[in-house]
Amino acid sequence: MKGVIDLQKNVRVKLYDIVIFLLYFSVVKVYAVPQVIQQILKIISMGIVASYFLSHSTKSFFNKTIILPCLMLISSVVYFIGGSSNIKILLDGILNASCYCLISACVCYTMKKNMQDHLVEMYYYLTLICCGISIISVFVKAKSANNYGAEVIYVFGNKYATCYLFIFLIGLAYYKFYDFKKKKLKKSILILCFIILALLISYLTRCYTTLVAFGVMLILFFFSGRTIKKIRKFINNPIVAVLLVAVPGMVAMNITAVMQNPFVYKIVTEWFGKTAGLTGRAYIYSNLYNIYARHPFIGYGYNSDIVNIVTEVGNAQNGIMQSLIDYGAIGTIALLAIVYLAFKNSNKKDRYWGFKISFLTFCVCSIVEIPFKYLFFFVVSFLFFSNRDEALINIGENLNEQ
What we know:
402 residues; mainly alpha; 19 helices; single chain
């Protein structure tokens, strides 16, 4: 009888490992796979993941963060019903909302089962492998292409998507190796190596946004003193976390005034070799408010091409403004509320400091890019469910749990 129970436990562990593996590659795009096959595999994988969490812990699936994907979905549905989008955009919106829901369900379930260390370990190694493949991909491209713009596609996307993997990896590494007190020096060296590699990849791909962001990360991880301690205490504040998400939008909307500062102008034009218009971003930003004002409450839905239609230049190129355009004020407020609670729940939990630095790094990138996507939400979810006791009280025990 005991052997049967042990066998069942082993099978369950293996099944769970498969589930979190499928979830990972549902949110991390492998561009080497044709898009149609990629979408089919994503839908199948998400179906398996959803079935697992719904059958094992329904209340972990329907946790507090469910409000965000619901509002995301409402934006897509309303915009579609109004006749302003097509079925493809609606399906993209459904998949997007589902991914957010499954990410929070996965982290919530592992916290409830006291298996979060296992989840972090699995995602650490998966991300480490992806980063290793990315390094090879970048060097291969470096030999065959002189243009390292956003249109150059590596194995896991363009230069931004490639660098975001390193941001996620560093947060995972800090959590995973936090308890190795006797090997503290080795842990520091490991994280330092990851940051140096990330800086190198940013430089080789001419991704100057993440170059600056990783520079900030390096300072906060390895420099000490009163000023850094004050900054660390400052970042831990939930209100500050909300501001870190929101303020880059204000910077974008006032980019012309910002560029008039001689120091900023010199950095952008001389150090990074960009134009005063930030490669067309200033023009995009000048149109964003008018775009947002047409649908201020629920937005245009995920993956809407409204910015491209108006400006003929890609997306909003700013994290919070893209959120406002996609999901409106209601969806964006829900995102900010989850960020606030995430930092409140993780207060005084030093092991999660790496995730907070990853969060800050994503926020720095959001000034001129749109990094508030799945890896960012993974980081927020780890912080949100960091308080195990509170998670158990709020979620409760699932009577149908097997």
